[in-house]
Amino acid sequence: MLTLFLQAQGGSSPMMLIMMGVMFVGFYFLMIRPQMKKQKQEKNFQENLKVGTRVVLTSGLHGRIAQVQDDGFVIETLSGKLKFEKAAVSREMTEARFGDKVKAAEKADDKKETATEEKK
After folding, report:
1. Which residues contact 66 (CB under 8 A, 6 or more apart)?
2. What is the enclosing helix (H) or strand (E) of 6?
3. What is the number of H-type helices and E-type strands within the chain?
4. 62 pairs with which residues across the strands?
5. Residue 16 contacts by C-beta under 8 Å, 6 or more apart in sequence?
6. What is the spatial distance between Cα 37 and Cα 24, in angstroms, rounded to a whole number?
């Protein structure tokens, strides 16, 4: 054990630098990259919300988007309309509650639109 400590004190060996590099690459792929991907997905989700979408805020408040503004949303709840920042929107309620049914309905709407366009 004493010889390991003496060898480590001798100077920076190439093996130590390689191990530090491997650790950095590991941290990047296991921690930093997934976090950046999650932030990007969340930003895209918040940018693509439309009027009429039912959402749940980070505070637990449920409501429907009444207006979309540059800096936030106006959320309509049972008690009235409230303005919130875009970052306060946690998830879309219609997708969380109905899941695949909403996606199937959207696909059906897309098919109807393409059929209408083809007829023109």
Report:
1. 51, 73, 74, 75, 76, 81
2. helix 2-9
3. 5, 5
4. 56
5. 8
6. 18
Q: Which helix (H) or strand (E) holds 105?
A: helix 100-119
Contact 61, 93 (CB under 8 A): no
Of 48, 54, 60, 52, give the one whose Cα is nearest residue 86. Answer: 48
End-to-end CA distance of the chain: 82
Spell out the alpha helix ranges (H) of 28-87: 33-47
Write out pLDDT tens, residues 1-11.
556 555 555 55
Residues 6+ apart with CB under 8 A from 25: none
Residues for the chain: how many in total? 120
Q: pLDDT for 42-93, tens place per residue?
A: 888 888 888 888 888 888 888 899 999 888 899 998 889 999 988 888 777 6
Q: Would you state the torsion angle of the CA atoms of residues 104, 67, 87, 70, taken in this order, to the nearest 10 degrees?
A: 120
